[in-house]
């Protein structure tokens, strides 16, 4: 149960500042499950292999609503065990603009390629390119395994977009590239 401390940190600390070199996270792919056509004109991902440890994702997005600082994201983790993804106690909700402002999870890397809207979010067509998670800024001690993360974006309690990311976590000491 070595992951419990970090779950509590995620839930109870307003500030998420991590530096870890305990594991690598290999993103397998990100897919858009659904979106609300009232707020999003289209949303697509394209996943590609970047190098041995990094998969890149390109996002194209048409935002029909100026979300301002009001987009929330609920995150639920699932870990693959006994042939299925089972609920894993990673579950939290964040305000996306606040998360980006603090660079939690290294999310300012959303701006390293493309033209995604800065906060407050505006309407428009946006591209985020060559993105992959900056796992050096993720919490330490996540157990090795295969994970599915479910992301639900909401705007004043209305669903905006649901995406899922698949990734595997390997201990650095066990990883022989
Ligand atoms: C893969 O690319 C990432 C991002 O540029 C880089 O940090 C990492 O060191 C690269 N890995 C290898 C094995 O080249
Ligand atoms: C962002 O880039 C895309 C692709 O180049 C372009 O179609 C879109 O108009 C750009 N959006 C903004 C807000 O500049
Ligand atoms: C991802 O986007 C970048 C920048 O626009 C582009 O150069 C690259 O070809 C795209 N990759 C794929 C697989 O579409």
TrEMBL record:
InterPro entries associated with the record: DUF1091
Annotated keywords: Signal
Top-level taxon of origin: Eukaryota
Leader sequence segment: 1-17
Pfam family, one: DUF1091
Tagged with keyword Signal: yes
Name the record gives this protein: Uncharacterized protein
């Amino acid at each position: 149960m070595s992951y419990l401390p970090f779950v509590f940190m995620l839930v109870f600390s307003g500030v998420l500042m991590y530096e870890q070199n305990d594991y690598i996270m290999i993103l397998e792919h990100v897919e858009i499950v659904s979106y609300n056509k009232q707020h999003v004109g289209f949303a697509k991902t394209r996943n590609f292999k970047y190098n041995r440890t990094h998969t890149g994702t390109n996002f194209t997005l048409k935002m029909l609503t100026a979300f301002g600082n009001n987009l929330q994201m609920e995150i639920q983790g699932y870990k693959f065990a006994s042939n299925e993804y089972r609920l894993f106690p990673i579950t939290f909700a964040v305000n996306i603009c606040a998360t980006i402002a603090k660079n939690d999870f290294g999310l300012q890397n959303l701006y390293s390629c493309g033209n995604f809207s800065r906060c407050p979010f505006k309407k428009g067509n946006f591209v985020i390119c060559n993105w992959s998670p900056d796992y050096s800024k993720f919490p330490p001690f996540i157990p090795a395994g295969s994970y599915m993360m479910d992301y639900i974006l909401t705007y004043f309690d209305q669903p905006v977009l649901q995406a899922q990311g698949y990734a595997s976590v390997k201990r650095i000491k066990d990883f022989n590239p």
